[in-house]
Design a protein that fits this description.
Helix content is 43%, strand content 15%. It is of the alpha/beta class. Its EC number is 3.1.3.18.
Length: 228
């Protein structure tokens, strides 16, 4: 990581799950119900954290095979739909972080490998939709993270200058890879980098900046307002 203090961003793209909201338990529960439907062994929470990073359309064909993955997709979506809003919990400091960026005039978007419809329903449920210029989920763009396509979609008509100081904030190796693919500053939130078991060539990836939680990052963002 760099020893220099990060420059104030002109735009910030956030991952969603376990960056702004706590959803590991929900993802694990829906996955394990799906595994049980298909006679597969279930995963512990730690296994889920290391094996989930890519979008469903990229990971399920590997998990379930080309002949069964679409049926598994339908099973997972059914289970997830039944529980995701009632278990949705913002991470501590996430709302304050979004407020601080908005107050600084920073463009904010979301790029997630969660299904786009679920993603936007969760943002609406939390009443966070007005914070974001665009909310882009899995299958909304031609390719999902770590490809650059969903970031370009989330940035919309943003000027080239916003790309010059763009942050990508997430919790997984896929988020770091995506940041590299668009030339963004990679910022990690959380105790550890997740998703190593769901990606290749990830062992050497590290973020430009690492913050323990949203509260730590919001203190940095609020300091920018004193010099802007």
């Amino acid at each position: 990581m760099s020893d220099k203090f990060p420059h104030p961003p002109k735009a910030v793209i956030f991952d969603w799950d376990n960056t702004l909201v706590d959803s590991w338990g929900t993802i694990q529960a829906a996955l394990n119900m799906t595994f049980e439907d298909f006679g597969r062994e279930t995963w512990t929470l730690e296994e889920t954290k290391q094996r989930v990073a890519r979008s469903l359309r990229d990971s399920f064909p590997v998990l379930f095979g080309q002949d069964r993955w679409e049926a598994a997709k339908d099973s997972f979506y059914g289970h997830f739909r039944s529980i995701h809003l009632e278990t949705l919990t913002p991470l501590v400091g996430a709302y304050d972080l979004l407020c601080a960026l908005r107050d600084n005039g920073t463009y904010i978007g979301v790029v997630s490998n969660k299904n786009g419809d679920f993603l936007r329903k969760e943002a609406e449920h939390l009443e966070w939709t007005p914070f974001f210029g665009k909310i882009v989920g899995a299958t909304d763009a031609a390719n999902d993270k770590p490809a650059a396509d969903p970031v370009h979609m989330a940035m919309g008509d943003s000027s080239a200058s916003q790309y010059e100081n763009l942050w990508f904030v997430g919790d997984s190796v896929v988020d770091i890879q995506c940041a590299r693919n668009v030339g963004a500053t990679a910022i990690l939130i959380g105790d550890e980098i997740t998703g190593h078991g769901d990606t290749q060539n990830s062992a050497t990836l590290s973020p430009d900046w690492h913050f323990a939680d949203c509260e730590a990052l919001v203190r940095v963002v609020k300091s920018f307002s004193k010099v802007l």
